[in-house]
Amino acid sequence: MKKYQNFSLLTITILGIVLLFSSTPNGFAQNEKNKIRISADFVNVQDKEQFINIKAIARIDKQTVEVSNAEFDIFQVINDEETEIGKTITSANGTSKFIIKDFNSLQADSSGTYNLSIVFSGNDAYKKASKDLSFKKAEILAEMVTRDSVNYVTAKLIDRSTDSVLTELPLNVQVQRLFRPLKIGEDFYTTDENGQIEVAVEDGIPGIDGNLILEVVLKENDDYGTVKALVHAPIGKVVVSESTFEQRTMWSPRGKTPIFLLFLTFSFIIIVWGLFVYLIRNLFKIVKS
């Protein structure tokens, strides 16, 4: 009898351990989900597009990893009511560019602030999470002027919710490039009491057909996000194309091999095969004789 009682006690203990592990987050039946972290920045490229740069990361095993294929719902929040304006999915490096197709359809609150909510509903690996994004609309009025044969970029920063100038804010002036912009002058220029800056553009900056695209940028501001104004200026140094792609050079494609190299190569081939033919012919003569 005591033997059966011990057996029953052992069975109950094993069942208890199994139930304990299956009911805990770190048990065998269920793994703990990771927490996702969301960062977002509003970008306004004037007269071109407005979008939100989203990045999703997580901390797993004491390492920061980028969360790919995470789907986000974007909502506009007005008086505590949410209206969906679109969806986006992160790429392999955990980033996504959500383009606001009709920015004029967004509504600001009484203070001129736009309020958005970026929501991740969760999946098998990550918990649900959200990020609130608020920003006001700012505008940069930029143009190119020439005085005493010197070219200048002038810019004025305005808060469009109040139509007032924004002072003591840093603006970057740079030349648009394919991979990384080329900064002009100092790292940044602070707007004066009129919300303006004026920056001299040095001569000799190369550009295709002499055309430059200058950028005046308010970068990642807490209230206005990133605002960028583009100025097209035909003041660059004309870039002369030195491409030899269509010429017969040593580094050209196979179809553009230099003539002398083709002649030399085929000459060697003919000479080598000619020697083979000559030797084989003489061998046949020796055999017959």
Give a brief outline of the structure.
This protein is of the alpha+beta class.
- What is the count of β-strands? 19
Estimated structural class: alpha+beta
Principal-axes shape call? flat
| Biggest beta sheet attributes | 9 strands, mixed
CATH topology (level 3) name of one domain: Immunoglobulin-like
The amount of helix comes to 10-25%
The SSE string, one letter per element, is HEEEEEEEEEEEEEEEEEEEH
| CATH architecture name of one domain | Sandwich
CA distance, first residue to last residue: 111 Å
Kindly estimate the percentage of residues that lie in beta strands according to DSSP. 35-45%
Task: Give average pLDDT, whole number.
Answer: 85
List the helices and strands and how they pair.
Elements: H1 2-23, E1 36-45, E2 49-60, E3 63-66, E4 71-78, E5 81-89, E6 95-99, E7 113-120, E8 129-136, E9 138-147, E10 150-159, E11 164-165, E12 170-175, E13 182-183, E14 189-190, E15 196-201, E16 206-207, E17 212-221, E18 225-233, E19 237-238, H2 259-288
Parallel strand pairs: 1-18, 16-19
Antiparallel strand pairs: 1-2, 2-3, 2-6, 4-5, 4-7, 7-8, 9-10, 10-11, 10-15, 12-13, 12-14, 12-17, 17-18
List keywords for this structure.
289 residues; alpha+beta; Immunoglobulin-like; nine-stranded mixed β-sheet; four-stranded antiparallel β-sheet; 2 helices; 19 strands; 18% helix; disordered N terminus
Please explain how this structure is put together:
This protein is an alpha+beta fold. Among the domains are: 36-136, Immunoglobulin-like; 138-238, Immunoglobulin-like (Sandwich), CATH 2.60.40. 18% of the residues lie in helices and 43% in strands. It has 2 helices and 19 strands. The longest helix is centred in the last third of the chain and has 30 residues, at 259-288. The chain starts with a helix and ends with a helix. Residues 1-5 and 23-30 have low confidence and may be disordered.
